[in-house]
Write the structure tokens for this entry.
Amino acid sequence: MLLKTKRTCSVVLASLLAISIVGCSSADNTNNNTAVTNSDDPAWVEAKTTPFGAYPDTVTYSVGQMATKFTQLSGSPYEKDNATNNAWTRYFKDKLNVQNTTKFEANDGTDYNQKVSMAIVSGDIPDLMVVPDYATLQQLYENDLIADLTDAYKNTASDRIKEIYDSYGGRVIDNATFDGKIMAIPTTEISHGPGILWLRKDWMDKLGLEDPKSMQDVEHIIAQFVEKDPGGNGAGKTIGLVVDNENVAGVSGGQYSLNNIFSLYGAYPKQWIDNGSGQAVYGSVQPEMKPAITKIADMYKKGLIDRQLAVRTGDDRKALLTSGKSGSFLDNWWGSWTVADSIKLNPDAKWVSYVAPQSEDGSVTMFTGNPSSSYLVVRKGFANPELAAKIVSLQYDYQRYQEKDPATLKTFADYSSLNVAGSPISINIDYYDAFYRNVDIMKEALATGDTSKLTMNNDISAYNSYKKYLEDEKNGVKMDSNAWAGYESSITTASLVKESNIKEVSPVFFGSTRSMPLKWPTLTKMELEMYLKIITGDQTPDAFDQFVASWNKTGGEVITKEVNEAITSK
């Protein structure tokens, strides 16, 4: 649902900008910095060329701000905090001597995106602003409304921030680079990792089944679950693999998606991939798709896939798992949270994760997600464009990894416990492999009790939760389902992925083209119907060939050409 909403907003916003941005003026807006920059003053030089150097005089900057529910601070020592005076703004003021003002404020999602659009169309954008997609960034660049941040990134992004971006193999910074110039500070989208097969291990033990590796192993286990009913549901009432009927495959990190099965055949649905000759092609219409979907249709016919998948809702799917009607689904490393409630209903239920099904060489191939979905830009004419890189470095490097002051850490921990954000800059920057990068450090802390290497407040909170879970398990105490889910995902499954043979395919395009707003909804509907009709047996796998022909005629061929033109022009 979230992905759909974000895409719809992006298309609408891009369309609005294409029509209206011609009315924008690239003339310098009134510079509302209250500080006067002295380029010869050593203190100013240091501030403008180092990540953490404070400005000699207070620099004021306006922002487009995502609303924070400060009302949740009621009754706490921070109950008077607001958008311009809170834990984060005080931290920025103390460390950098900067102060935000609010140009506009809106809730995350559609409301915020509309405010961004209105600001751009009016030509009156904040000094710093997060834009929601690549299309908006491109429009801002082409209309000369944003500052070149090449020197700002080079001089004032910290070494760790650069290291984080480097962990994406250059893909993130490249997305924000136009004509050799870095025009934004991109957000990062950490790797979702490969698809993970989750199985009821207590059922497997009851039936004497071994851990799966190959597709044949997976099919055998699910068949045994369905036929022998280890959960005691009654003959014919145990459901096979639970599958999402809206995203059968093709979403990075997709819940109940069959990405792992498609990738066995070299198929990557819904992804723009390099065909090996430098050309982008749409994965859903490639020849490798046909044998993959034929296999899935065969599984459905044998009862190894939920026979009612076409009509299940999200709540239905989860209920099948938590109630014990099904013992198998594909998800990601956080899939333990999907079935945490089953532990409450049945303390004997035991879910275990597997990197499967695997290819003959023991590998699992995954496609990577969009490495950056939003961008922090600076208004052209703002006197301190380096401020964007400095704030990002302070927030996502210094505060996260280097801050040691107990009082400061407690304040941020209090905010976190109350689920309050508060930063004027609502993005995230983290390592590509963040979900398992620090797993060994956490495992060492749990083994020794030494938490000195844990860096963030949430690390300590997680440590305490995991420690209690392990103690409860050792002592035979009824486990807390949330503690189990956290440990199973962030420790057990993260370790499993880290030690597995994972191969990656990186899509080459995540944006939009001029024909997509009009044609893509129809093409998407055609694609979904193709999956469901072939899988459920309403059509034979040969219908895939007709789908490909219709897809191309209905706009797919034109869009493919536009995608390649966009890649070439970039």
The two ends are 30 Å apart (CA to CA).
